[in-house]
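Let's practice the habit of predicting before peeking. Look at the sequence and jot down your guess about where helices and strands might fall. Then scroll down.
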Amino acid sequence: MDELDLLKKDWKKQESSFQQIGEKEIYGMLHKRSSSIVKWIVIISILELLLWTGISFFTADEEYFKTLKMYHLDTAMPIIAFINYGVILFFIYLFFKNYRAINTTDTVKQLMQSILKTRKTVKYYVWYNLAMTAFSFILVFVFQFMYDPNIRKMINKMSQNVDSNVFYCIMFMVYAVIIAVFVGLIWLFYRVLYGILMRRLEKNYNELKKIDY
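Done guessing? Here is the structure:
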């Protein structure tokens, strides 16, 4: 049982003796907890950016750039990466802005609105990352299919034994499964990373509704 539950339990015990703990104390507790949760969202998003940046830095060797050039993506991918980092930094700014907004709220309604806005921002952030992951895989697979000489050799060899339409259908299904698996793993990653914090914010919101109504 956490501190808020103990406070509410004590509140109910003292109702009969008219020594009620005020709603301000409950609001203060929820305000403090909500602020702490959003602060962790900011911290985690920054650490996540540093993690992906580190992985990109250590995997971007000479072979990686040769592969990009072979796939004719040596210009497109850096531009996409630049735009992606810009969007992620914008989301981090929004998270920090939400944190500042929650810190400066002084009414129940304002805090409820800030919590809803924060949850919506996190939802958009997760959906953006899932969409960007799917887009990146699709782009690489399409250009790999078009320009990778090993893939072209395999296509020519397989087309001699299998109808071309059947072969392309099989390749499409294989690529679709691979993309679905990786997007699913990223979704699980965000589910664990932000899911707990979002559930706690939702719990705070529901508690605030009891005060407001």
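How did you do? Residues 101 and 156 are 60 Å apart (CA to CA).
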